[in-house]
Amino acid sequence: MNNPNSFTVKKLSETQILSVYTEIAVRHFPEDELKPAPMIERLLSEGCYEGMGLFAEDKLAGYALFVHAPGNRILLLDYYAILEEYRESGMGSLFLQKMREGFLGCAAILIETEEEEAATGEAERIQRVRRNAFYLKNGCRRTLVKSRLFGVDFGIFVMPVEDVLTDEEAYARLEEIYRYVFAGDDFAKYVRMGMDA
After folding, report:
1. Are 101 and 162 a contacting pair, CB within 8 Å?
2. Each residue of 107-165: pLDDT tens digit?
3. Long-range contact list for 99-105, CB < 8 A, 24+ apart?
4. What distances in angstroms separate CA 68 from CA 16, 49, 63, one per listed residue?
5. Which of 17, 113, 153, 190 would be 51's cystine partner, CB 3.0–4.6 Å?
6. pLDDT tens digit string along 57-89?
7. Mutual angle of helices 91-102 and 122-137, in 10-degree steps
8. What order do you get walking across the sheet with 7-11 strand by strand?
């Protein structure tokens, strides 16, 4: 494992966020999971998109991009990845723990993870189970909140930062974020939300 003390977490500037999104995230996420760049630019210009970078000295080792509704300090983790050469070394857990320190003043972070039972094959299901186990291991809590965006089913996890959200609070804050990001008719067209009984 790399020495954890050699890594630092820093907030990314708007320019760095756009660079990470347009040049690096395209390698880590399927095209249908990437928002149009002008949407990210709009969220940045409105002060509702933020980024954190995990750095090995001055070299980017991982990134996390977040969106929030105006005036609300509940964040939704939008994109999260460790660069290939730093994977399988505990950097994902280290980054998740350190990013909490960078968001003091934020109550909690919401995390969408693809539903395990909606996987199209066993390999994909195992990958989703591993991803969810990773979040649970690192202090996140699985809620009863579910969402469907553009036909993809997600379960919602909460990572406390300065507060512990109830499932009902998580639902309300997530809906607020979705209504902000998917403005106008897009929310009704592409977003579905619910809670397991």
Report:
1. no
2. 999 999 988 888 888 998 999 999 999 999 999 999 999 999 988 899 999 999 998 89
3. 99/9, 99/52, 99/64, 100/159, 100/161, 101/9, 102/9, 102/10, 102/11, 102/52, 103/52, 103/75, 103/161, 104/161, 104/162, 105/73, 105/162
4. 18, 7, 17
5. 17
6. 889 999 999 999 998 889 999 999 999 989 888
7. 50
8. 7-11, 49-56, 59-67, 74-82, 108-114, 152-160, 141-149, 191-195
pTM, rounded to two decimals? 0.91
Owner of token pair 């998109």: 49
Judge whether 68 and 76 are in contact, CB under 8 Å.
yes
Q: Which two tokens stand for residue 20?
A: 């990470």
As a whole number of angstroms, the distance between CA 28 and CA 50 comes to 18
Amino acid identity of residue 190, one-letter, is Y
